[in-house]
Design goal:
Helix content: 25-40%
Largest sheet: 7 strands, mixed
Radius of gyration: 15 Å
Number of helices: 5
Order of helices and strands: HEHEHEHEHEEE
Strand order of the largest sheet: 3-2-1-4-5-7-6
Shape: globular
CATH class: Alpha Beta
CATH architecture: 3-Layer(aba) Sandwich
């Protein structure tokens, strides 16, 4: 895995992901996503929440591009330990908060709002389709905020009242929601 752009451009990292319940975003789909985001958001001005954070891939990318307020949430202890090590190695402890929590419990307790929320749940999660509604109901996005949900073609958000658009990269789809 690698960081695509910014301060840490080209930095490679290999999580010890044997038997991890994670599915890292592929480089091809990640490049497509960040090329699009580069034209839509000012990374230096956003607060970012990474739900089902896994390897921390998206936090590193946001911080590399100038974000100074990123929050990582996952419940898998080895992933959290890896992310803490990476955050220390990149010397970005002041920019990334690492939270060990079930994502739905975190959302329920959260009192912060964010400019950008990325949710990359396991494709097998039966409640993927509920994530946008839960986040919108809880009010976690700022007024002009953006929610990105990564999912496979088995999940569809057609007709969701907050759906703005979707981008398809083979078996990876990014759906974009606004409040």
């Amino acid at each position: 895995m690698r960081i695509i752009a910014g301060q840490f451009k080209g930095h490679r990292f290999t999580p010890p992901a044997k038997n991890w319940p994670t599915r890292p975003t592929t480089d091809i789909s990640k490049e497509g996503l960040y090329n699009m985001l580069q034209n839509r958001i000012d990374f230096e001005e956003v607060s970012f929440l990474d739900l089902f954070g896994g390897t921390g891939n998206h936090c590193y990318e946001f911080v590399s591009r100038g974000c100074t307020d990123a929050t990582y949430v996952d419940r898998h202890y080895p992933a959290i330990q890896f992310v803490k090590q990476m955050v220390a190695k990149l010397d970005i402890e002041d920019k990334v908060q690492v939270k060990k929590s079930d994502v739905f419990k975190y959302i329920d307790r959260c009192t912060s709002t964010y400019d950008v929320i990325f949710a990359g749940p396991p494709y097998g999660l039966k409640t993927i389709d509920a994530i946008p509604g839960i986040i919108m109901k809880k009010g976690l996005l700022k007024e002009e905020g953006l929610l990105i949900v990564e999912h496979n073609p088995n999940v569809r958000f057609d007709g969701h009242k907050h759906l703005e658009s979707a981008r398809n990269y083979g078996q990876t789809i990014f759906s974009f929601f606004r409040p």
